[in-house]
Automatic annotation (TrEMBL):
It comes from Chloropicon primus. Coiled coil: none annotated. Its EC number is 2.4.1.1. Belongs to the glycogen phosphorylase family. Allosteric enzyme that catalyzes the rate-limiting step in glycogen catabolism, the phosphorolytic cleavage of glycogen to produce glucose-1-phosphate, and plays a central role in maintaining cellular and organismal glucose homeostasis. PROSITE patterns: PHOSPHORYLASE. This is Alpha-1,4 glucan phosphorylase.
Length: 828
């Protein structure tokens, strides 16, 4: 009987239709005759989820039976994007579901649009985590992601009165059909309270007890993570905070019933909201509590699963478990795992340290000082008194080692300490993570170089073997196959196979075809089609009519000074003024040479980051002036697309010709959208920063437009600028003068413009502006030759195999986790 019951659900078109209609009626309890897109989306999603769940439970069962090593990816952020089409493709059921829905009167495309994007992250780091989950599943690794289930994701951005306005993103409003609540997976997480030293009367050993404080309850929600065309289905477990009153009913007995419940209710908001920062680390108490809550629940869960197997001794943990810390956000895992091993498992310090150190690894994503997490020591002491004791002990042992290796070098000792002797004292989470982990990795060559040469230099000198580079990668199945079906079809047609979907290296063969006129025609038609779709999207979201034959020049990412959207918009203003002067001087030959362009911006500014919000205002002001100036005809349009997120990116990236990645050298750790744009036949205009440099190596100098100072020059300039004030580029001076004079509306943007003064120009806009304009000119000249341009975009796309997250995950598996993929087959 069990054999009969354990077969997988049927997947013929009729069975899929039945399952969808049944979910409308029985799961959602809605009338199946009522035509309602939202219900049909949800029912379809649940029908797909049913088919994932079978593989998911089988995978977990298989992994336990094989006792193979597991990877746990700990991240405070995930930007999953929509799941419906991804899950269907993974199951190889996309066409059948599309056919099933067609007959029910819905197109898959329209139902896709019903899905809300869970914005549980703020930018690149969260999206990277999601790409990693997909590759881990596809490559048959047994890996779980852990994160927080924020009630409100990253805010929704609307443009009101020509500025950013933030609205709460209550993404769970209609329910999230991909998750499964696990009321049986609950842990208590303690915060605050006191520590007490207790001497064991028998052994005389001093034990530390953590008493009092408040308990918060963590409950797990699971989201299945399917691999592409494999049965392997992993799990993403997200924690939500709950009142812990169910756990200690005893305290209600003294008549304090309501007071007790009220107090317990305070725990609910812990996972309410995601901090909307990227590359910035505000020292907020709630954030530290979120981090600890996340880490403690996760580690309790990992240990519980590990200990279920009777053969597992704790000392063996590093051979069975790899824990990857995504940035220092979960770095409190180091003392927390120590605490669990010392206080709950009664291990000695040496054994506990051996386990922690060999299990955990840390990925750094930034060198910007303001993004490095440091917490006021008094705050740590208040919330996590036991952990502070452990941190002191870790630091004490570590500094003794430093003193042994470098006797008579107290400055080095002070520099490397976890505790900064400031007022108040601060706890440096990066130091804690480096000391507590067996590997530390940067996310692009130049970035890792900077970690070793400057930011973590002392640590690199001490443990050179600890530092590795693993250049980021992106999931090409989402960013090519799913986001750009038109291009995928052209590629598969010309290669005669779909095998590139599994192995991006297969794209190399396209290079030979890059000048083939028929292939070029297909490629150009595909690009035109994607640009028309983007043009329609722009019309809908910005109410601006743009010409799909113009060059689409795109700059989309979080708004930040170091990413230099400001430099881009100054360049746009320059282009506009130049067109006007050509018109005024009646230079018609030169005017004919001007490449018609649509400049597209999108991205969110942190709500309290006023400079970034001013940049958005300036972009909108300049866009309004240019778009309403009928003199320049269609030569230039500028749009700011609101509410940039994963699904908006999936429309913008395939429709772009040129994309800008123009951070000041040394500031963008890697960048990942640069890879996505290249994969979609868009050429990069890039600074000498992050992964741009490695992309340049792969695609070749002729197929990318690079400009500006490199990291070394930036460093030298930053020290010499204080003494030598260079002249502002004449073109830049002209543009800023026009902005101040009110050419682009009544606001004069004084503080933005003043930031260009050499003494204020931390991000080298003034220095790089000239070479930036030259790079733009080179790209214009290239665009004027369509065959050459097309060949460049083909070669650039065909050179992307290194930038697949599949390659990246294989490197983590080999260099850091020491895990092998498994070969899971269905039970028969
Ligand atoms: C820290 C403390 C308190 C509140 C918020 C934060 C916080 C949150 C998010 C700090 C930083 C982040 C996000 C950083 C991020 O997205 N970094 C990007 O990571 C990408 C993936 O490696 C890189 O490609 C980008 O270069 C890097 O900027």
């Amino acid at each position: 009987l069990w054999k009969l019951l354990c077969t997988y659900l049927p997947c013929d078109v009729l069975s899929l239709q039945k399952s969808i209609v049944q979910h409308v009626e029985y799961t959602l309890a809605r009338r199946r005759y009522k035509r309602d897109k939202c219900s049909f989306y949800q029912a379809t999603a649940i029908s797909v989820r049913d088919r994932l769940i079978e593989r998911w439970t089988d995978t977990q069962q298989y992994l336990s039976s094989k006792d193979s090593k597991r990877v746990y990816y700990l991240s405070l952020e995930y930007l999953l994007g929509r799941n419906l089409q991804n899950a269907m493709s993974c199951l190889a059921l996309r066409n059948r579901y599309a056919a099933a829905l067609e007959e029910l009167g819905y197109s898959l495309e329209e139902l896709t649009e019903e899905e809300r994007d869970p914005g549980l992250g703020s930018g690149g780091l969260g999206r990277l985590a999601s790409c990693f989950l997909d590759s881990l599943a596809t490559l048959n690794f047994g890996a779980w992601g852990y994160g927080l289930r924020y009630k409100f994701g990253l805010f929704e951005q609307r443009l009101i009165s020509k500025a950013q306005a933030e609205f709460p993103d209550f993404w769970l409003k209609e329910g999230y059909p991909w998750e499964v609540e696990r009321p049986d997976v609950q842990y208590l997480v303690r915060m605050y309270g006191e520590v007490e030293d207790r001497v064991d009367p028998e052994t005389g050993e001093v034990k530390v007890a953590w008493k009092g404080g408040e308990d918060v309850l963590a409950e797990g929600f699971d989201i299945p993570v399917p691999g592409f065309h494999t049965l392997n289905t992993n799990n993403l477990r997200l924690w939500t905070s709950k009142a812990s009153c169910e756990f200690d009913l005893g305290s209600f007995n003294d008549g304090q019933y309501y007071a007790a419940i009220e107090e317990k209710e305070r725990s609910e908001p812990l996972t309410s909201v995601l901090y909307p920062c990227d590359n910035n680390a505000p020292g907020k108490e709630l954030r530290l509590r979120q981090q600890y809550f996340f880490v403690s629940a996760t580690l309790q869960d990992i240990l519980r699963r590990y200990k279920k197997s009777p053969s597992h001794g704790l000392l063996d943990l590093p051979n069975k478990v790899a824990i990857q810390l995504n940035e220092t956000h979960p770095a409190i895992a180091i003392p927390e795992l120590m605490r669990l091993l010392l206080d709950d498992e009664n291990l000695c310090w040496q054994d506990a340290w051996h386990i922690v150190h060999n299990t955990c690894a840390y990925t750094n994503h930034t060198v910007m000082p303001e993004a490095l997490e440091i917490w006021p020591l008094p705050l740590v002491e208040q919330i996590l008194p036991r952990h502070l004791r452990i941190i002191y002990e870790i630091n004490h042992q570590f500094l003794s080692e430093v003193r042994r290796r470098w006797p008579g070098d107290p400055q080095r000792v002070a520099r490397m300490s976890i505790i900064e002797e400031s007022e108040p004292k601060m706890v440096k989470m990066a130091h804690l993570a480096i000391i507590g982990c067996h590997k530390v990795n940067g996310v692009a060559q130049v970035h890792t170089g900077l970690l070793c040469k400057s930011l973590f230099r002392d640590f690199y000198e001490m443990w050179p073997e600890k530092f590795v580079n693993i250049t980021n990668g992106v999931n090409h199945r989402r960013w090519m196959l799913q986001a750009n079906p038109a291009m995928s079809a052209v590629i598969s047609k010309w290669l005669g196979t779909h095998d590139w979907v599994h192995d991006l290296g297969r794209l190399e063969r396209l290079k030979e075809l890059s000048s083939n006129p028929e292939f070029q025609r297909d490629w150009q038609e595909m690009k035109r089609y994607n640009k028309r779709k983007l043009a329609e999207f722009i019309e809908r979201t910005c109410d601006v009519d743009v010409d799909a034959d113009a060059m689409f020049d795109v700059h989309v990412k979080r708004i930040h000074e170091y990413k230099r959207q400001f430099m881009n918009i100054l360049g746009v203003a320059y282009r506009y003024l130049r067109i006007l002067s050509l018109l005024a001087e009646e230079k018609f030959d030169e005017l004919r040479q001007v490449v018609p362009k649509v400049v597209i911006f999108a991205g969110k500014a942190a709500p309290n980051y006023s400079v970034a919000k001013d940049v958005i205002k300036l972009i909108i002001a300049i866009a309004d002036t240019i778009n309403s100036d009928t003199r320049i005809g269609g030569l230039l349009k500028v749009v700011f697309i609101p509410n940039y997120n994963v699904s908006v990116a999936e429309v913008i990236i395939p429709g772009s010709d040129l994309s800008q990645h123009i951070s000041t050298a040394g500031f963008e750790a890697s960048g990942t959208s640069n890879m996505k744009f290249c994969m979609n036949g868009s050429l990069l205009l890039g600074s000498r920063d992050g992964a741009n440099l490695e992309i340049e190596q792969s695609v070749g100098r002729a197929n990318i437009f690079m400009f500006g100072a490199n990291t070394k020059e930036v460093r030298t300039l930053q020290t010499t600028m204080q003494y030598r004030k260079p002249q502002l580029d004449g073109r830049l001076a002209h543009v800023t003068q026009e902005i101040r004079s009110g050419r682009f509306g009544p606001t004069s943007f004084d503080s933005l413009v003043d930031s260009l003064l050499p003494e204020n120009d931390r991000y080298m806009v003034g220095h790089d502006f000239g070479s930036y304009l030259e790079a733009l000119e080179v790209s214009d000249a290239a665009f004027r030759k369509p065959e050459e341009w097309t060949a460049k975009t083909i070669v650039s796309c065909a050179s992307m195999s290194r930038f697949s997250s599949d390659r990246c995950i294989r490197e983590y598996a080999e260099k850091i986790w020491n895990v092998e993929p498994h070969q899971f087959r269905p039970p028969n």
